[in-house]
TrEMBL record:
Residues 347-431 form the Histidine kinase/HSP90-like ATPase domain. The lineage of its organism: Bacteria, Bacillati, Actinomycetota, Actinomycetes, Streptosporangiales. It catalyses: ATP + protein L-histidine = ADP + protein N-phospho-L-histidine. The keyword Repeat does not apply. It comes from Actinomadura yumaensis. This is histidine kinase.
Protein backbone atom coordinates (compact mmCIF):
# COMPACT_ATOMS: atom_id res chain seq x y z
CA UNK A 1 0.00 0.00 0.00
CA UNK A 2 1.37 3.43 -0.98
CA UNK A 3 0.86 6.33 1.41
CA UNK A 4 0.09 9.89 0.51
CA UNK A 5 3.64 11.10 1.19
CA UNK A 6 5.11 8.73 -1.38
CA UNK A 7 2.54 9.84 -3.94
CA UNK A 8 3.31 13.46 -3.17
CA UNK A 9 7.03 12.75 -3.54
CA UNK A 10 6.54 11.05 -6.89
CA UNK A 11 4.28 13.83 -8.15
CA UNK A 12 6.71 16.45 -6.97
CA UNK A 13 9.65 14.74 -8.62
CA UNK A 14 7.68 14.32 -11.82
CA UNK A 15 6.72 17.95 -11.86
CA UNK A 16 10.30 18.86 -11.08
CA UNK A 17 11.57 16.74 -13.96
CA UNK A 18 9.05 18.28 -16.37
CA UNK A 19 9.89 21.76 -15.10
CA UNK A 20 13.60 21.03 -15.57
CA UNK A 21 12.98 19.96 -19.14
CA UNK A 22 10.97 23.08 -19.84
CA UNK A 23 13.68 25.17 -18.23
CA UNK A 24 16.33 23.52 -20.40
CA UNK A 25 14.26 24.14 -23.53
CA UNK A 26 13.77 27.75 -22.49
CA UNK A 27 17.50 28.18 -21.81
CA UNK A 28 18.45 26.70 -25.19
CA UNK A 29 15.85 28.85 -26.92
CA UNK A 30 17.15 32.00 -25.25
CA UNK A 31 20.73 31.11 -26.19
CA UNK A 32 19.72 30.48 -29.80
CA UNK A 33 17.81 33.76 -29.86
CA UNK A 34 20.79 35.74 -28.56
CA UNK A 35 23.24 33.93 -30.84
CA UNK A 36 21.02 34.50 -33.87
CA UNK A 37 20.83 38.21 -33.08
CA UNK A 38 24.63 38.33 -32.66
CA UNK A 39 25.21 36.67 -36.03
CA UNK A 40 22.70 38.92 -37.81
CA UNK A 41 24.12 42.10 -36.28
CA UNK A 42 27.69 40.94 -36.93
CA UNK A 43 26.89 40.28 -40.59
CA UNK A 44 25.37 43.68 -41.32
CA UNK A 45 27.03 45.85 -38.70
CA UNK A 46 30.61 44.50 -38.85
CA UNK A 47 31.41 42.22 -41.77
CA UNK A 48 29.62 44.32 -44.39
CA UNK A 49 31.49 47.60 -43.68
CA UNK A 50 34.70 45.67 -42.97
CA UNK A 51 34.47 43.95 -46.36
CA UNK A 52 34.00 47.29 -48.10
CA UNK A 53 36.84 49.15 -46.38
CA UNK A 54 39.21 46.17 -46.70
CA UNK A 55 38.55 45.85 -50.42
CA UNK A 56 39.07 49.60 -50.88
CA UNK A 57 42.31 49.58 -48.86
CA UNK A 58 43.65 46.74 -51.06
CA UNK A 59 42.64 48.65 -54.18
CA UNK A 60 44.52 51.70 -52.87
CA UNK A 61 47.82 49.82 -52.42
CA UNK A 62 49.21 51.10 -55.77
CA UNK A 63 48.44 54.65 -54.59
CA UNK A 64 50.54 54.19 -51.46
CA UNK A 65 47.86 54.82 -48.85
CA UNK A 66 46.83 51.16 -48.98
CA UNK A 67 50.28 50.13 -47.76
CA UNK A 68 49.33 51.57 -44.37
CA UNK A 69 45.56 50.95 -44.38
CA UNK A 70 45.37 47.42 -45.82
CA UNK A 71 47.34 45.74 -42.96
CA UNK A 72 45.12 47.50 -40.41
CA UNK A 73 41.86 46.29 -41.94
CA UNK A 74 43.21 42.83 -42.79
CA UNK A 75 44.30 42.43 -39.16
CA UNK A 76 40.83 43.54 -38.05
CA UNK A 77 39.32 41.00 -40.45
CA UNK A 78 41.46 38.28 -38.86
CA UNK A 79 40.17 39.34 -35.47
CA UNK A 80 36.55 38.92 -36.63
CA UNK A 81 37.35 35.56 -38.22
CA UNK A 82 39.11 34.36 -35.06
CA UNK A 83 36.10 35.38 -32.99
CA UNK A 84 33.91 33.34 -35.32
CA UNK A 85 36.24 30.36 -34.82
CA UNK A 86 35.88 30.71 -31.05
CA UNK A 87 32.08 30.92 -31.22
CA UNK A 88 31.84 27.92 -33.57
CA UNK A 89 33.75 25.74 -31.12
CA UNK A 90 32.21 27.09 -27.90
CA UNK A 91 28.61 27.09 -29.14
CA UNK A 92 28.44 24.03 -31.40
CA UNK A 93 31.69 22.08 -30.95
CA UNK A 94 32.77 22.88 -34.52
CA UNK A 95 36.54 23.25 -34.26
CA UNK A 96 38.18 25.62 -36.76
CA UNK A 97 41.99 25.66 -36.42
CA UNK A 98 43.80 28.93 -37.07
CA UNK A 99 45.55 28.60 -40.46
CA UNK A 100 47.70 31.74 -40.56
CA UNK A 101 51.40 31.67 -41.31
CA UNK A 102 53.87 32.48 -38.53
CA UNK A 103 54.35 36.17 -37.84
CA UNK A 104 57.86 37.48 -38.63
CA UNK A 105 59.81 38.86 -35.70
CA UNK A 106 60.46 42.33 -37.10
CA UNK A 107 58.22 43.94 -39.67
CA UNK A 108 58.20 47.25 -41.43
CA UNK A 109 55.12 48.44 -43.37
CA UNK A 110 56.09 46.64 -46.59
CA UNK A 111 57.04 43.37 -44.89
CA UNK A 112 53.84 43.40 -42.83
CA UNK A 113 51.77 43.96 -45.94
CA UNK A 114 53.62 41.18 -47.76
CA UNK A 115 53.13 38.78 -44.85
CA UNK A 116 49.37 39.39 -44.85
CA UNK A 117 48.75 39.51 -48.58
CA UNK A 118 50.88 36.45 -49.38
CA UNK A 119 48.99 34.26 -46.91
CA UNK A 120 46.19 32.31 -48.66
CA UNK A 121 44.23 32.30 -45.39
CA UNK A 122 43.87 36.10 -45.71
CA UNK A 123 41.95 35.79 -48.97
CA UNK A 124 39.80 33.00 -47.57
CA UNK A 125 38.97 35.29 -44.65
CA UNK A 126 37.98 38.01 -47.09
CA UNK A 127 35.80 35.58 -49.06
CA UNK A 128 34.16 34.42 -45.83
CA UNK A 129 33.54 38.02 -44.82
CA UNK A 130 31.89 38.72 -48.18
CA UNK A 131 29.66 35.62 -48.11
CA UNK A 132 28.88 36.05 -44.42
CA UNK A 133 26.93 39.22 -45.16
CA UNK A 134 23.96 37.38 -46.75
CA UNK A 135 24.46 33.99 -45.07
CA UNK A 136 25.23 35.20 -41.57
CA UNK A 137 22.39 37.70 -41.66
CA UNK A 138 19.95 35.25 -43.28
CA UNK A 139 20.66 32.28 -41.00
CA UNK A 140 20.84 34.41 -37.87
CA UNK A 141 17.62 36.22 -38.68
CA UNK A 142 15.90 32.95 -39.62
CA UNK A 143 16.81 31.48 -36.24
CA UNK A 144 15.36 34.53 -34.50
CA UNK A 145 12.19 34.52 -36.60
CA UNK A 146 11.55 30.82 -35.99
CA UNK A 147 11.79 31.33 -32.24
CA UNK A 148 9.78 34.57 -32.14
CA UNK A 149 7.10 33.04 -34.41
CA UNK A 150 5.98 30.59 -31.72
CA UNK A 151 6.35 33.08 -28.86
CA UNK A 152 4.16 35.54 -30.72
CA UNK A 153 1.41 32.91 -30.89
CA UNK A 154 1.64 32.29 -27.12
CA UNK A 155 1.82 35.85 -25.83
CA UNK A 156 0.76 38.29 -28.55
CA UNK A 157 -1.93 36.65 -30.69
CA UNK A 158 -4.39 35.79 -27.82
CA UNK A 159 -4.14 39.27 -26.32
CA UNK A 160 -4.56 40.95 -29.69
CA UNK A 161 -7.57 38.76 -30.47
CA UNK A 162 -9.26 39.78 -27.22
CA UNK A 163 -8.73 43.46 -28.03
CA UNK A 164 -9.52 43.53 -31.74
CA UNK A 165 -11.79 40.44 -32.09
CA UNK A 166 -9.74 38.96 -34.89
CA UNK A 167 -6.68 36.80 -35.29
CA UNK A 168 -3.18 37.99 -35.88
CA UNK A 169 -0.50 36.75 -38.18
CA UNK A 170 -0.50 32.98 -38.62
CA UNK A 171 -3.10 32.51 -35.89
CA UNK A 172 -5.99 34.10 -37.79
CA UNK A 173 -8.55 31.53 -36.55
CA UNK A 174 -8.69 33.03 -33.05
CA UNK A 175 -11.45 35.45 -33.90
CA UNK A 176 -13.61 32.70 -35.41
CA UNK A 177 -13.48 30.25 -32.52
CA UNK A 178 -13.49 32.46 -29.43
CA UNK A 179 -12.03 31.06 -26.21
CA UNK A 180 -11.54 27.58 -27.65
CA UNK A 181 -9.65 29.08 -30.56
CA UNK A 182 -7.43 31.04 -28.18
CA UNK A 183 -6.62 27.95 -26.08
CA UNK A 184 -5.94 25.87 -29.17
CA UNK A 185 -3.75 28.57 -30.63
CA UNK A 186 -1.73 28.88 -27.41
CA UNK A 187 -1.18 25.10 -27.35
CA UNK A 188 -0.22 25.07 -31.02
CA UNK A 189 2.13 28.03 -30.59
CA UNK A 190 3.74 26.46 -27.52
CA UNK A 191 4.39 23.24 -29.44
CA UNK A 192 5.79 25.31 -32.30
CA UNK A 193 8.05 27.13 -29.86
CA UNK A 194 9.42 23.83 -28.53
CA UNK A 195 10.05 22.56 -32.06
CA UNK A 196 11.62 25.86 -33.11
CA UNK A 197 14.46 25.51 -30.58
CA UNK A 198 16.29 22.64 -32.39
CA UNK A 199 15.44 24.23 -35.74
CA UNK A 200 17.07 27.52 -34.71
CA UNK A 201 20.05 25.66 -33.27
CA UNK A 202 20.40 23.71 -36.51
CA UNK A 203 20.36 26.91 -38.56
CA UNK A 204 23.11 28.43 -36.42
CA UNK A 205 25.13 25.22 -36.54
CA UNK A 206 24.83 25.35 -40.32
CA UNK A 207 26.43 28.80 -40.17
CA UNK A 208 29.25 27.37 -38.07
CA UNK A 209 29.83 24.62 -40.64
CA UNK A 210 29.82 27.23 -43.42
CA UNK A 211 32.46 29.18 -41.51
CA UNK A 212 34.49 26.01 -41.04
CA UNK A 213 34.51 25.36 -44.78
CA UNK A 214 36.27 28.68 -45.43
CA UNK A 215 38.12 29.55 -42.23
CA UNK A 216 39.76 26.16 -41.57
CA UNK A 217 43.21 25.31 -43.02
CA UNK A 218 43.19 24.05 -46.58
CA UNK A 219 44.61 20.69 -47.64
CA UNK A 220 47.74 22.47 -48.90
CA UNK A 221 48.21 24.17 -45.54
CA UNK A 222 47.75 20.87 -43.74
CA UNK A 223 50.32 19.26 -46.04
CA UNK A 224 52.81 22.03 -45.29
CA UNK A 225 52.08 21.59 -41.60
CA UNK A 226 52.74 17.86 -41.78
CA UNK A 227 56.01 18.47 -43.61
CA UNK A 228 57.04 21.02 -40.99
CA UNK A 229 56.21 18.61 -38.18
CA UNK A 230 58.16 15.83 -39.91
CA UNK A 231 61.17 18.15 -40.23
CA UNK A 232 61.01 19.31 -36.61
CA UNK A 233 60.54 15.74 -35.43
CA UNK A 234 63.67 14.74 -37.32
CA UNK A 235 65.54 17.67 -35.75
CA UNK A 236 64.27 16.68 -32.30
CA UNK A 237 65.48 13.11 -32.84
CA UNK A 238 68.88 14.42 -33.92
CA UNK A 239 69.08 16.67 -30.85
CA UNK A 240 68.12 13.78 -28.58
CA UNK A 241 70.70 11.49 -30.21
CA UNK A 242 73.41 14.15 -29.81
CA UNK A 243 72.39 14.61 -26.17
CA UNK A 244 72.65 10.87 -25.53
CA UNK A 245 76.09 10.78 -27.15
CA UNK A 246 77.20 13.68 -24.95
CA UNK A 247 75.96 11.92 -21.82
CA UNK A 248 77.69 8.70 -22.84
CA UNK A 249 80.94 10.58 -23.55
CA UNK A 250 80.80 12.44 -20.24
CA UNK A 251 80.16 9.21 -18.36
CA UNK A 252 82.97 7.38 -20.15
CA UNK A 253 85.58 10.12 -19.92
CA UNK A 254 84.64 11.44 -16.50
CA UNK A 255 82.80 9.53 -13.82
CA UNK A 256 83.49 6.07 -15.28
CA UNK A 257 87.26 6.70 -15.46
CA UNK A 258 87.31 7.97 -11.88
CA UNK A 259 85.32 5.00 -10.65
CA UNK A 260 87.76 2.62 -12.37
CA UNK A 261 90.69 4.40 -10.71
CA UNK A 262 88.84 4.27 -7.41
CA UNK A 263 88.38 0.52 -7.73
CA UNK A 264 92.07 0.02 -8.54
CA UNK A 265 93.17 2.12 -5.55
CA UNK A 266 90.94 0.16 -3.21
CA UNK A 267 92.31 -3.11 -4.61
CA UNK A 268 95.90 -1.98 -4.12
CA UNK A 269 95.09 -0.80 -0.63
CA UNK A 270 93.73 -4.25 0.24
CA UNK A 271 96.99 -5.86 -0.93
CA UNK A 272 99.18 -3.32 0.88
CA UNK A 273 97.20 -3.35 4.12
CA UNK A 274 99.22 -6.21 5.69
CA UNK A 275 102.70 -5.30 4.41
CA UNK A 276 102.63 -1.50 4.18
CA UNK A 277 99.74 0.05 6.14
CA UNK A 278 101.02 3.58 5.59
CA UNK A 279 100.91 3.24 1.80
CA UNK A 280 97.50 1.57 2.03
CA UNK A 281 96.24 4.52 4.05
CA UNK A 282 97.43 6.94 1.35
CA UNK A 283 95.72 4.85 -1.33
CA UNK A 284 92.47 4.90 0.65
CA UNK A 285 92.72 8.66 1.02
CA UNK A 286 93.19 8.98 -2.75
CA UNK A 287 90.19 6.69 -3.26
CA UNK A 288 88.05 8.85 -1.00
CA UNK A 289 89.09 11.96 -2.93
CA UNK A 290 88.39 10.23 -6.23
CA UNK A 291 84.94 9.17 -5.03
CA UNK A 292 84.11 12.78 -4.14
CA UNK A 293 85.22 13.99 -7.57
CA UNK A 294 83.22 11.24 -9.27
CA UNK A 295 80.16 12.22 -7.26
CA UNK A 296 80.63 15.87 -8.22
CA UNK A 297 80.86 14.94 -11.90
CA UNK A 298 77.76 12.77 -11.66
CA UNK A 299 75.85 15.63 -10.05
CA UNK A 300 76.98 17.93 -12.84
CA UNK A 301 75.88 15.38 -15.39
CA UNK A 302 72.46 15.09 -13.75
CA UNK A 303 72.11 18.88 -13.77
CA UNK A 304 72.95 18.80 -17.46
CA UNK A 305 70.14 16.31 -18.10
CA UNK A 306 67.45 18.02 -15.99
CA UNK A 307 68.49 20.44 -13.24
CA UNK A 308 66.77 19.72 -9.90
CA UNK A 309 66.13 23.45 -9.42
CA UNK A 310 64.10 23.43 -12.66
CA UNK A 311 61.86 20.68 -11.34
CA UNK A 312 61.53 22.32 -7.92
CA UNK A 313 61.18 26.02 -8.74
CA UNK A 314 60.18 26.18 -12.39
CA UNK A 315 61.72 28.16 -15.22
CA UNK A 316 61.92 31.52 -13.43
CA UNK A 317 63.68 30.08 -10.37
CA UNK A 318 66.03 27.97 -12.49
CA UNK A 319 66.98 30.96 -14.66
CA UNK A 320 67.73 33.05 -11.57
CA UNK A 321 69.89 30.25 -10.14
CA UNK A 322 71.69 29.97 -13.47
CA UNK A 323 72.34 33.73 -13.56
CA UNK A 324 73.82 33.63 -10.05
CA UNK A 325 76.34 31.00 -11.13
CA UNK A 326 77.86 33.16 -13.88
CA UNK A 327 80.82 35.55 -13.45
CA UNK A 328 79.01 38.72 -14.60
CA UNK A 329 75.97 40.61 -13.29
CA UNK A 330 72.74 39.54 -14.96
CA UNK A 331 69.44 41.32 -14.51
CA UNK A 332 66.54 38.84 -14.47
CA UNK A 333 62.92 39.89 -14.97
CA UNK A 334 60.21 37.25 -15.32
CA UNK A 335 56.43 37.31 -15.45
CA UNK A 336 55.28 33.69 -15.67
CA UNK A 337 52.14 33.28 -13.52
CA UNK A 338 52.29 29.48 -13.42
CA UNK A 339 54.26 26.37 -14.26
CA UNK A 340 54.97 25.49 -17.86
CA UNK A 341 54.86 22.00 -19.28
CA UNK A 342 58.02 20.11 -18.31
CA UNK A 343 59.37 19.64 -21.89
CA UNK A 344 58.85 23.34 -22.66
CA UNK A 345 60.51 24.38 -19.40
CA UNK A 346 63.48 22.19 -20.18
CA UNK A 347 63.82 23.46 -23.75
CA UNK A 348 63.61 27.11 -22.67
CA UNK A 349 66.04 26.60 -19.78
CA UNK A 350 68.75 24.94 -21.86
CA UNK A 351 68.29 27.51 -24.62
CA UNK A 352 68.91 30.30 -22.08
CA UNK A 353 71.86 28.35 -20.62
CA UNK A 354 73.46 27.95 -24.07
CA UNK A 355 73.02 31.64 -24.88
CA UNK A 356 74.50 32.71 -21.54
CA UNK A 357 77.43 30.36 -22.09
CA UNK A 358 78.07 32.13 -25.41
CA UNK A 359 77.83 35.49 -23.63
CA UNK A 360 80.51 34.48 -21.13
CA UNK A 361 82.84 32.93 -23.73
CA UNK A 362 82.56 35.26 -26.71
CA UNK A 363 80.77 38.56 -26.05
CA UNK A 364 83.22 40.35 -23.70
CA UNK A 365 80.11 41.78 -22.05
CA UNK A 366 80.06 43.64 -18.75
CA UNK A 367 76.37 43.03 -18.11
CA UNK A 368 73.57 40.87 -19.43
CA UNK A 369 69.81 40.68 -18.95
CA UNK A 370 67.04 38.12 -19.19
CA UNK A 371 63.36 38.94 -19.64
CA UNK A 372 60.76 36.15 -19.69
CA UNK A 373 57.00 36.51 -19.81
CA UNK A 374 53.98 34.41 -20.69
CA UNK A 375 51.06 36.07 -22.47
CA UNK A 376 48.55 35.06 -25.10
CA UNK A 377 49.45 31.40 -24.87
CA UNK A 378 53.10 32.06 -25.70
CA UNK A 379 56.32 32.16 -23.71
CA UNK A 380 58.71 34.90 -24.80
CA UNK A 381 62.29 34.93 -23.51
CA UNK A 382 64.72 37.74 -24.36
CA UNK A 383 68.43 37.42 -23.52
CA UNK A 384 70.69 40.39 -24.18
CA UNK A 385 74.18 41.63 -23.38
CA UNK A 386 76.27 44.79 -23.86
CA UNK A 387 79.15 42.96 -25.53
CA UNK A 388 80.89 43.38 -28.86
CA UNK A 389 78.10 41.83 -30.94
CA UNK A 390 78.61 40.00 -34.20
CA UNK A 391 76.76 36.83 -33.17
CA UNK A 392 75.49 34.86 -36.17
CA UNK A 393 73.45 31.65 -35.82
CA UNK A 394 74.81 30.47 -39.17
CA UNK A 395 78.35 30.39 -37.79
CA UNK A 396 77.69 28.59 -34.53
CA UNK A 397 76.49 25.06 -33.91
CA UNK A 398 75.24 26.09 -30.46
CA UNK A 399 72.65 28.54 -31.80
CA UNK A 400 71.63 26.14 -34.55
CA UNK A 401 71.06 23.57 -31.84
CA UNK A 402 68.87 26.05 -29.98
CA UNK A 403 66.81 26.65 -33.12
CA UNK A 404 66.31 22.91 -33.60
CA UNK A 405 65.40 22.44 -29.94
CA UNK A 406 62.80 25.23 -30.11
CA UNK A 407 61.45 24.15 -33.50
CA UNK A 408 60.41 20.83 -31.98
CA UNK A 409 57.84 22.85 -29.98
CA UNK A 410 56.91 25.21 -32.86
CA UNK A 411 59.18 27.79 -31.27
CA UNK A 412 61.22 30.48 -33.00
CA UNK A 413 64.45 32.34 -32.32
CA UNK A 414 65.58 35.71 -33.68
CA UNK A 415 69.06 37.18 -33.18
CA UNK A 416 69.97 40.86 -33.44
CA UNK A 417 73.70 41.39 -33.03
CA UNK A 418 75.30 44.24 -34.98
CA UNK A 419 79.05 44.75 -34.79
CA UNK A 420 79.79 46.64 -31.60
CA UNK A 421 76.68 45.27 -29.89
CA UNK A 422 74.40 44.92 -28.19
CA UNK A 423 73.27 41.36 -28.83
CA UNK A 424 69.59 40.50 -28.28
CA UNK A 425 68.22 36.99 -28.71
CA UNK A 426 64.42 36.65 -28.72
CA UNK A 427 62.81 33.23 -28.34
CA UNK A 428 59.10 32.38 -28.47
CA UNK A 429 57.39 29.12 -27.60
CA UNK A 430 53.64 28.42 -27.80
CA UNK A 431 52.65 26.78 -24.53
CA UNK A 432 50.01 26.70 -21.81
CA UNK A 433 50.37 27.21 -18.08
CA UNK A 434 49.48 24.57 -15.52
CA UNK A 435 49.67 25.19 -11.77
CA UNK A 436 50.13 28.72 -10.40
CA UNK A 437 53.54 29.67 -9.14
CA UNK A 438 54.30 30.37 -5.50
CA UNK A 439 57.79 31.88 -5.71
CA UNK A 440 58.95 35.44 -6.52
CA UNK A 441 59.84 35.93 -10.14
CA UNK A 442 62.15 38.91 -10.54
CA UNK A 443 65.46 40.07 -9.32
CA UNK A 444 69.04 40.87 -10.19
CA UNK A 445 71.74 38.24 -10.20
Amino acid sequence: MVDDREIATRDGSGRGGFADRLGEIGRRGLLSLVRGLIQAVLALGVTLPLTIVTALSIAFIPLGVGIVLAPVFLTALRGVANQQRIWAEEWFGVRIPVPYRARPEKMGPFRRLGWLVSDPATWRDLLWCLLNVPLGFGLGLAAVVVLVYGLEGVFVAPWLAGVTDYGWGPFWMIGDYGVFGIVGTVVLAAALTVVSVPIASGLLRGHALFSQSLLAPTRTALTERVEHLAETRSDAVDVSAAELRRIERDLHDGAQARLVALSMNIGLAEEMMKHDPETAQKLLAEARSASGEALTELRGLVRGIHPPVLAERGLDGAVQALALSLPLPIDVRTDIPGRLQAPVESAAYFAVAEILANVVKHSQAQRAWIQAEHAGGRLQVIVGDDGIGGADPANGSGMRGIERRLAAFDGTMAVTSPQGGPTVVTMELPCALSSPKTLPSSGTA
